Amino acid sequence: MKKLVLAGVAVWAFACVLEAAPFVRIDFPCQNFWGQITAETPLPDGMWLGERTGFYDKKRKGYDFPVFVDLGKVKSFDVTFKFTGTGKARMAPSLTGYLTDAMTADDMTELICTEFSVDGDKSAQVGTFKSWKSMTPFISSTAKPYTRDITLTPGQKYYGIFVTGGRTIRVKAEFENPLE
Q1: Please, which residues bridge with residue 134 across strands?
Q2: 93 touches 169 (CB < 8 A)
């Protein structure tokens, strides 16, 4: 009887592993910005905002804003996020891939990002990534002011997105599930 129960548990565990899908954590690190991030458009089922966290390096002030994506439910999305608060941050989004929802350092895996853009500007870093990947630089799609002294031209690379209170960003992304 014990062998039958153990065999049943093993079959159930194997079925759970087969249905497990990887997760992606999208980080929006905002040094020198104190506030919150909210979704202006509804998040698809399988995507959620995490709690803001401080930086590991205590010399850096501000917060990191994580967004989690279950690739078993969401392979692509187009969502607008709003930052509310004070300060000004030069944000550089990054991705971290995990094999399961445990999302621990031992659980990191290789994933494929086929598209990642912020406000229509595409990341030059799409492709396969192992564990962590910065999505900068971005390639400007239109002419627009970047700083007080710099105006971006179409096709020009830039390395950060400025975030202040009230700023909205539209993020489009598409991933492939390597387990399929």
Answers
A1: 94
A2: no
Provide the mean pLDDT of the chain: 89
Separation of alpha carbons 64 and 54, rounded Å: 6
The residue that leads in pLDDT, 105 or 177, is 105
Whether the Cβ atoms of residue 94 and residue 132 lie closer than 8 Å to each other: yes
How far is it, in rounded angstroms, from Cα 166 to Cα 113? 28
DSSP letter string, the chain: -HHHHHHHHHHHHHHHHHH---EEEEEEEEETEEEEEEESSPPPTTEEE---B--SSTTS-EEEEEEEEETTT-SEEEEEEEEEEEEEEEE--EEEEESSTT--GGGB-EEEEEEEEETTEEETT-EEEESEEE-PPEE-SS-EE-SSS-EE-TT-EE--EEEETT-EEEEEEEEE-TT-
Distance, CA of 36 to CA of 52 (rounded, Å): 7
Q: What gap in Å lies between CA 176 and CA 180, rounded to an integer?
A: 8
| Other residues' Cβ atoms within 10 Å of the Cβ of residue 137 | 16
Backbone angles phi, psi at 173, to 5 degrees: -150, 155
Span 125-175, pLDDT tens digits: 999 998 899 999 999 999 999 999 999 999 999 999 999 999 999 999 999
Q: Which two tokens stand for residue 119?
A: 């406000």
